[in-house]
Write the structure tokens for this entry.
Amino acid sequence: MKLTDQYKAAKYKFQGNGPRSIDTLKEALNSIQEDRFADLYGKGEIIEEFEKKFAVILGKESAVFMPSGTMAQQIALRIYADDKNNKKIAYHPLSHLELHEQDAIKILHGLETVLLGEPNRLFTIKDLMSVEENVGTLLIELPQREIGGYLPALNELEEIIEYARSKNMYTHLDGARLFESLPYYEKSPAEIAAYFDSVYISFYKGMGAVAGAVLAGKKDFIDKAKIWKRRHGGDLISLYPYIIAANYYYEKRKGVMSKFHEEAIELAKYFNDLPAVCTTPEIPMTNMFHVHADFSSDQLEKIVSKIFSEFDVSIAGGIKKIDEKTSKFEISIGEEFSKIPKELLKQVFGRLNEYIKVRS
Amino acid sequence: MKLTDQYKAAKYKFQGNGPRSIDTLKEALNSIQEDRFADLYGKGEIIEEFEKKFAVILGKESAVFMPSGTMAQQIALRIYADDKNNKKIAYHPLSHLELHEQDAIKILHGLETVLLGEPNRLFTIKDLMSVEENVGTLLIELPQREIGGYLPALNELEEIIEYARSKNMYTHLDGARLFESLPYYEKSPAEIAAYFDSVYISFYKGMGAVAGAVLAGKKDFIDKAKIWKRRHGGDLISLYPYIIAANYYYEKRKGVMSKFHEEAIELAKYFNDLPAVCTTPEIPMTNMFHVHADFSSDQLEKIVSKIFSEFDVSIAGGIKKIDEKTSKFEISIGEEFSKIPKELLKQVFGRLNEYIKVRS
């Protein structure tokens, strides 16, 4: 059985809010008793109330709901590039825009990217200061997902933002996991977003809604973003299926991010106690981390599958090959983790320890 | 009360499938008893089965579900432009791409448009033959919505397509209302789509689903379209809310388009019997038509509002000013029309006749 299918089938799961299924939407929709009029091309109570609510939560003048972060962030960067007449965007080498968007920022919008620092760590102010090009916009992702969810210290973030402002750059926050970052910073979303000219947030990571994003910033910026949303084909006649779910799961899960963070720390410790295994970060800064193992992806998949067969526990929904001898997987703590009995967790790691010793 | 609010409030409505509301989605979702796994970035049974089904319905090798027609059509035209290294796209002056997409085809994709014929009529083969530019792709909208829903005769369509092919143009069908056109042609969707290299269809016009579109064509074309869907930000983690509704309402309403067409003919006749009023087309070719009146939009709105107050009937959800003395509105027949008792319909037009005579 494939690891993705094991995840769906397993009674217990290390990560996530459970398999994505249509009941997620049914639960949200059925929470609304009365019938409500649909939003129509960005107008109507459902979408306007939601956008106002998140403008306030994020401490910005205005906000717009977008079908995806891919759309929201390209639009933000394009507006800034046009405004400054400067096509140069700086971000981390493993930014979502660099890895997962089919080079849209370059091919669709004609922008140019400047990669900051090394792929395996956060970029620093030194990396930014060493850039020779005249950068128009700086994008910072909090946390940096592709390296396991690292967050810069708040004073480091402040330094970077201050430098970027001194160089007349726009600053945009890729806050796909902003709410997941708040327990570490002990700040409100608005306090973190205040460092940036604009912020994008997502609703289907820790929140576990269906899809969708919010982009927030100054009023004239959001007015322009709505025009670009139409251009991208994102101004659907009705977006209420995503908005209702986003609102429902935001209210349901906004209070549990600290718990998810603590559980990530607990689980990472278990992994770090194993031989030939370590996590990045060693102590998770959010609800997520990466588990690195000195095994080939085939070897690691076999071990994970044996645990599934023996304990009905899914450790990983997929494994990524790093090289012939090492591999990794990602954990994002959601509602599933706390369903695992503590005794079972100990048994699983006891058995993992045995398997790893045999193979090491 | 605004006309849009009258439409929502009125017991009887000339047009549409009723106010768009969240119950539309609830009805579709609740038709699925068991839980089903969500689609994930274009993969999974829900989306793949649906795409295969519509590839067959449209007689094409492959199909992809898109969040919107705006996205689907820009993508189709961009693929053809890149393939031919020819940025020139020809279409009707009132194409959706020209009027309602914030010039995305030009600003986002850098394509150039050639407008065929006059705004107030279908373009003909003569219009196409008189184009001096070397056009790469021809887009035809069936029916031409902005002039009331005209359709070319099938032999005229054949001539146009034959000429376009002889000039090595790609041909794309804007089939936003393709299913609404089939009773007139007495053809299957695949038979009409067969004239074209690719076709886009919509699910929230006559079908009355929530949102969404399908783009269909050759396999390599659709493979490219999926990459562009990602670039546009349309490859959402899950599109099932729209897909489930599209499938449900397609099955519910695919058989009623002939009835809607006949009812449009019936209602248009009522309007054409009024003084100072005519419809385009005079005899509707689909479920839609436009009603033109020799009144200012203010005058016409007052008449429509009086009918609402008196009979609890919404004639129009909005009125468009043409000039100081003339105005128009659009009728698209849906499930609401047949709910109006015939006797009431006669009374409404009797009263309209009185109002118009007084003012003429």
The mean pLDDT of chain B is 97. Chain B touches chain A through 54 residues (CB under 8 Å). Residues 342-359 of chain B form the longest helix (18 residues).
